[in-house]
Structure formats: structure tokens, C-alpha cells
């Protein structure tokens, strides 16, 4: 995937979004049976960067003291504020608050299909490119670490799999996406599934 230009990434993301359902991708198929409240809107930024002639994806490890998804590997992002006018604004605002990434330094490329989580967030994944190297300033209360993983490594089937995971009641055990450890970090769950959706969108040979 390292041969993909920004223009080609934009094109493939657009085509994949056009082909996807207007309904969100469900973290688990049974979710609509148990979520009675409207989903809370959120957005994440999937930051692309070039390092050593390879595309990398920037990720964070959430602080272990956070009330939700503590200690997990995640994309920068969070819930939408009432004054946010678009998912892009939410993703860029949250990325600045979490890791000090300035909105004007992000070149937006597109979006992925919405993703509905077990915690009833409807996440809108926004894809962008950032300059590298870049001086980041992680918020100590929210982010324990910022790191990158090569896109071509993420795309290799040998590096990811589905595992059965016991979920809290009333959910039955479900298949959850996991990646192999990379640089001491394990990408799994919603962020892993969003990553696989990204890889699938970019890998398709479209005309």
C-alpha cells in the first residue's frame, strides 16, 4: 500500500463510502436489540504519515484512569460537542485537545462508514494526512503514549485475527478483532475493526 498517493487514497475512500450502507457498521450484530437510546455522536481522526518511505498510521494509548476504554489503543477523537458543525471538526478538535495536533496541519482525505459501538457511540472515522516528524503534546490525563504502525503491516492477514470474547450481559460471546502486538502495543476492539475497514477500502482495486 505504500505506492498509494494521497489522491488515490481519497478516491478509494470515496468509492468505498459510496458503496457502503447508510446504516453504521455494527460492532456486534445484536446491538440494535439492546440499544434503546439514540446513539451519541463521536468522531475519530485516522492520521496518515510518511516515515521511512512507508505509510504509517498514528495511534494513542488511552490513560488507564479514564472512565471509558481505559488503557486501550485508540485513534485520537471523542464525542461531538453541540457546537461542532461536522465530524471533521469534532475529529480535529479532539485531536488537538488529546495530542496537540493542530487542525491546520491536517490534510483531510475522506471518511469511512460510521461505526456503532457497544457503548452506544456512533463513530465517524475521518482520514487525514499529517506532516512527520511533528512535535506532539499529549494530554497527560488522557493519553499515555503516541506511536505509529506501518499501514502495510496492518494490511497483512497474518497480523490480525478474530477471537471470541465474553461480553457483559445481555450480550452473548462475540468475535472481536485483534492485531498481533506491535512495538509493545495491542490494537483490538473497535479501533482494530475500524482499521480493518480502512485496509479493506484501500485494498480494493477500483476503476
> What's the count of strands?
11
Q: Give the overall form.
A: globular
Distance between the termini: 17 Å
User: What Rg is obtained from the alpha carbons, in whole angstroms?
Assistant: 16 Å
CATH superfamily: Nucleoside Triphosphate Pyrophosphohydrolase
Give me the secondary-structure category.
Answer: alpha+beta
Write down the overall mean pLDDT.
Answer: 90
Helix content: 10-25%
Q: What is the ordering of alpha helices and beta strands?
A: HEHEEEEHEEEEHEEH
CATH level 1 class label: Alpha Beta
Q: What is the name of the CATH architecture?
A: Alpha-Beta Complex
Q: What is the fold named in CATH at topology level? A: Nucleoside Triphosphate Pyrophosphohydrolase
Number of contiguous helices: 5
Q: Name the quaternary structure.
A: single chain
Structural domain tally = 1
In terms of DSSP E residues, the strand content is 25-35%
| Uncertain parts | none
Written account of the structure:
This protein has 207 residues and is α+β, with helices and mostly antiparallel strands. It is globular. The strands form two sheets. Strands 1, 2, 3, 4, 5, 6, 7, 8 and 9 form a nine-stranded mixed β-sheet that branches. A two-stranded antiparallel ribbon has the order 10-11. The model has no long low-confidence stretch (mean pLDDT 90). Strand 10 (160-165) and strand 11 form a beta hairpin. The protein has five helices and eleven strands, in the order H-E-H-E-E-E-E-H-E-E-E-E-H-E-E-H. The protein has helices at residues 6-19, 31-34, 87-99, 151-155, 189-203, and strands at 25-26, 40-51, 54-62, 73-74, 77-79, 107-111, 115-116, 121-129, 143-150, 160-165, 174-179. It has a single domain, classed as Nucleoside Triphosphate Pyrophosphohydrolase, CATH 3.90.79. 25% of the residues lie in helices and 31% in strands. The longest helix has 15 residues, at 189-203.
Amino acid at each position: 500500500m505504500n505506492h498509494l498517493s494521497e489522491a488515490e487514497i481519497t478516491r478509494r475512500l470515496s468509492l468505498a463510502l459510496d458503496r457502503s450502507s447508510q446504516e453504521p457498521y455494527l460492532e456486534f450484530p445484536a446491538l440494535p436489540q439492546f440499544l434503546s437510546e439514540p446513539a451519541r455522536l463521536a468522531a475519530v481522526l485516522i492520521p496518515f504519515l510518511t516515515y521511512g518511505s512507508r505509510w504509517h498510521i498514528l495511534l494513542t494509548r488511552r490513560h488507564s484512569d479514564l472512565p471509558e476504554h481505559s488503557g486501550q489503543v485508540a485513534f485520537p477523537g471523542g464525542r461531538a460537542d453541540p457546537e461542532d458543525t461536522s465530524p471533521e471538526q469534532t475529529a480535529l478538535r479532539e485531536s488537538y485537545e488529546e495530542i496537540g495536533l493542530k487542525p491546520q496541519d491536517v490534510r483531510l482525505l475522506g471518511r469511512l462508514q460510521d461505526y456503532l459501538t457497544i457503548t452506544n457511540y456512533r463513530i465517524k472515522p475521518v482520514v487525514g494526512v499529517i506532516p512527520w516528524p511533528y512535535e506532539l503534546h499529549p494530554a497527560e490525563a488522557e493519553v499515555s503514549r503516541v506511536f505509529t504502525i506501518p499501514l502495510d503491516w496492518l494490511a497483512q492477514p497474518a497480523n490480525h485475527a478474530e477471537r471470541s470474547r465474553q461480553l457483559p450481559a445481555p450480550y452473548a460471546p462475540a468475535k472481536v478483532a485483534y492485531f498481533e502486538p506491535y512495538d509493545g502495543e495491542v490494537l483490538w476492539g473497535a479501533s482494530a475493526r475500524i482499521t480493518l475497514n480502512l485496509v479493506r477500502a484501500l485494498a480494493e482495486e477500483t476503476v
